[in-house]
Design goal:
It contains eight helices and seven strands. It is α/β, with parallel strands linked by helices. α2 (40-52) links the parallel β2 (32-37) and β3 (57-61). The protein is globular, with a radius of gyration of 18 Å.
Length: 259
């Protein structure tokens, strides 16, 4: 893809699952990576994968819900590479709960990581992009932002918030050379989805695995999504090939939304 070689990208939550796939996909295009993740061990393993293919990667232990950590992430990226061209807000958490049993603490935690963390990481990076007159921001939302459920209302609300902040930032900074988009994955074959299956199935009177099989049966392409397929979409939106796309919430879910 055009325009990614030599660029510097921050990817939050880059130590596993979708985040790992995004990091490796960008590395294939010659992008330097800054991996922000709570788990330094898994993030370092991904950085080793990047370096094994000739890329450069920096790991910064980051809790995106903490202002101090967000600022340290940006400072470390600038100190190492001197610029930030791309921000991918991938860090996120999910909890499975009966709607009547969601606590305020659980609600606040989901919003703090998924919405507040995404917004204020953008806020920390934007001044540097504005100074240079260019930048790409890609936020990870979910098809959950556009659907209803009985098992993770607070997660769905948080991802709808990511879609909304994406559109607003796109409007605010489009004329300054910055595009802001989000990707809405579907049922992705990751440990996070496996956790959802284990916890959601009993709430719905299902056996482990049955929840996933029921959902997959509604996908037009007939299978779960691979993390790498999310990484491909993110890399496209970070590239010059997507230079006239902004403010969009792009579904990458194999046709699930059609059902």
């Amino acid at each position: 893809m055009r325009g990614l070689r030599g660029k510097v990208a921050i990817v939050t939550g880059g130590g596993q699952g979708i985040g790992r796939a995004i990091v490796l996909r960008l590395a294939q295009e010659g992008t330097d990576l800054v991996i922000g993740d709570l788990n330094s061990a898994t993030a370092s393993a991904v950085a080793d994968e990047v370096q094994a293919v000739g890329g450069r990667a920096l790991v910064v232990r980051t809790d995106v819900a903490r202002d101090k950590d967000r600022r340290a992430l940006v400072d470390a990226a600038l100190a190492k590479f001197g610029k930030i061209d791309v921000l991918v807000n991938n860090a996120g958490i999910v909890r499975v709960s009966d709607p009547l049993k969601i606590t305020e603490e659980e609600w606040d935690l989901i919003q703090a990581v998924n919405v507040k963390g995404t917004y204020f990481t953008c806020q920390a990076v934007l001044p540097h992009m504005l100074e240079r007159g260019a930048g790409r921001i890609v936020n990870l939302a979910s098809i959950a932002a556009k659907a209803g459920s009985t098992a993770f209302i607070h997660y769905n609300v948080s991802k709808a918030g990511v879609v909304a902040l994406t559109r607003n930032l796109a409007v605010a900074y489009g004329k300054r050379g910055i595009t802001v988009n989000c990707v809405c994955p579907g049922i992705v074959d990751t440990e996070m989805w496996a956790k959802i299956d284990r916890e959601a199935a009993p709430l719905m009177g299902l056996q482990a695995g049955e929840f996933t099989r029921n959902r997959v049966s509604t996908i037009a392409l007939g299978r779960m999504e691979k993390p790498e397929e999310v990484g491909d979409a993110v890399a496209f939106l970070c590239s010059d090939d997507a230079r006239y796309i902004t403010g969009q919430a792009i579904n990458v879910e194999g046709g699930l939304i059609f059902h």
